[in-house]
Amino acid sequence: MSSTPIASPARRAEVVRPRRPLITPARIGVYAFLLSTSVFFLLPLYVMVVTSLKSAAEVRQAVMFAWPASPQFGNWVEAWSTACIALACEGIQGGFMNSVRLVVPATLLSVFLGALNGYALSFWRSKWGDILFGIMLLGAFVPFQVMIYPLVAWTRMGGFYNTYWAILMVHCIFGMPVLTLLFRNYYVAVPNELFKAARIDGGGFWRIFFQLMLPMATPMLIVATILQVTGIWNDYLFGLIFAGKDNYPMTVQLNNLVNTTFGERRYHIDMAATILTSLVPLLVYFFSGRWFVRGIAAGAVKG
Amino acid sequence: MASVNIDQLDIVLGGNTILKGMDLEVADGEFLVLLGPSGCGKSTLLHTIAGFNDVATGSIRIGDRDVTWADPKDREIGMVFQSYALYPTMNVERNMSFGLRVAGVPTAEIDQRVARAAEMLHLGELLKRRPAQLSGGQRQRVAIGRAVVRDAKVYLFDEPLSNLDAKLRAELRRELKQLHLRLQATMIYVTHDQVEAMTLADRIAVMRAGVIQQIGSPHDIYERPVNLFVAGFLGSPTMNTMKGRLATGDGKVVFTSGEVQIDVSAYPFVKPPQNGQEVVLGVRPEQMELAAQRGPSAPLGGEVSLIEPLGPNKFVWFDVGDRSLSAVAESHWHGQVGQQVAFGFDPARASLFDAQSEARL
User: Fold this and answer.
1) Is the preceding peptide bond at B296 cis, omega within 30 degrees of 0?
2) ∠B233-B235-B240 over CA atoms, to 5°?
3) CA angle, B31 as apex, B27 and B32 as ends, to 5°?
4) ipTM exceeding 0.90, yes/no
5) Which residues in chain B have Cβ-Cβ distances shorter than 8 Å to A211?
6) What topology does CATH give the domain A93-302?
7) Residues B201-254 pLDDT 10s
8) pTM recorded for the entire structure
9) In chain A, where are the structural domains located?
10) Residue A116, Cβ neighbours under 10 Å: how many?
11) Which chain A residue has the Cα nearest residue B79?
12) Sign of torsion, CA A247 A252 A256 A257?
């Protein structure tokens, strides 16, 4: 047998990959589409930002797309701390605090419960597990308007209607189907042998959950947290119905601010308040977009 | 260390009876291999010993304890899985020590045991790595280490080498055998790989459809398979088989199949053969001996149809009647395809099976 020598690197380097043309009709089409959709989605944001920086006089001129002569950052300060909602002139800062006070515990609690549900359904297969899961999924598809009245009646019966606890509970309940589904699908893809190994090593229900399965689900925890933070922050209806006056979240305060009119509408202040309100979900998406896409994709494929 | 006794075990999963009336005894310190094709119930049996399946009837004892209904963690077992099943968020050290930490073993002792296992399995430099940073062979070593640190009474292996490439498999196989020699522990090992079974086992239990067909030393199982299934499952290429009839008379027993006539009087019959009995003759390829020409001592002759050189030797395939038989020839044998060859064999070492019951005669 004779072996042929391998081509020397120098000779191989001579082979040049044919260059593809930079501009093709397909590429032009793709970029045109991307550009137009970007403009479509960014335009409202642009108008919002621009308007929030205008003076009252400029707003009255009704040139929507014009850049403000001198940006009035004072508008933002006013919306935050001194704008009047009904008789109270404290801006929407109270709403911000209320939202934070609600979003943090509601997110932690609902994500924890979702992970726990998903874990229990995937590994500790009980007789009724599949039926319970089915019922819970059904809950995800029933329009939530249907459940509002019973929930109001129920919380009133329990004596905590219009309290912090009512809104906290409502958010946890409504987060449960999707979060459970998310975690169940994640855990179903985990080999059962891993669970068996932990069982042999002596782990019980809680130890396996806290020391093994919960840390393993970090990508899902991040996704679930993003979902819940943005979802609860953006919620308006539940906050309005269940939270009670003292706990109105920022979205409800914003609506009240916008609808409080003494004479002339102050669009620039309204826009400033809107930007402040949407800042939290905007930042969350901005800094976690990569994770978010990854998690949703992982869930979708593995499900 | 302890023996394992399984008595009249039935396993029913989802309405299907997987195991029925299973009896099995594994001696203290024995390396038992459960061998069989996919779906024969060998893994189910192992997972039942580990405590992951509910027992319908029967009992399982480890040592002198009845563990039929004991929780997996209370059975004092260590287990190694096909998919390694390492805890992905923990490093190698914490993977191995997880069970000990759960059991509340003092830190000093944990360190000592982990160090000992790491030394045995050459894992010293990998202790701080995560499973994702390890190769397949290293991962399975860690999984073995995790089982070993437990000082269990019985170690269970569920096809531990199936996910590895051929070279690593051979390497880890040797390490497992050395580990068994060193620990002298009771080990039950599930595989569908006959080479693993032959090389590792003290005894092999060949299973088919939830029933143990034969249990014995690798030599016994290979040389004297109790039925056609066992005969066909072990050995590569598989045992040559020919259907035919026995003719008795003149103190001789002759096997006849078409033109082929073979004197099998030397065969160690358990029961006296009957005249005209339909049988299957089985001869392992390496028992075939090349002869210069066809004759009474070389009754199998035919045309070579294929030659497979392996290096140390060659597989020679030749046609006898409508059967294709195989034989092992020395590497310096230089036959050609199409050439006429003749082979003989020692009837005393061959196998004869009843054609109906497929059981060894």
Assistant:
1) no
2) 90
3) 80
4) no
5) 98
6) MetI-like fold (1.10.3720)
7) 999 999 999 999 999 999 999 999 999 999 999 988 999 999 999 998 888 899
8) 0.82
9) 10-81, 93-302
10) 18
11) A197
12) positive
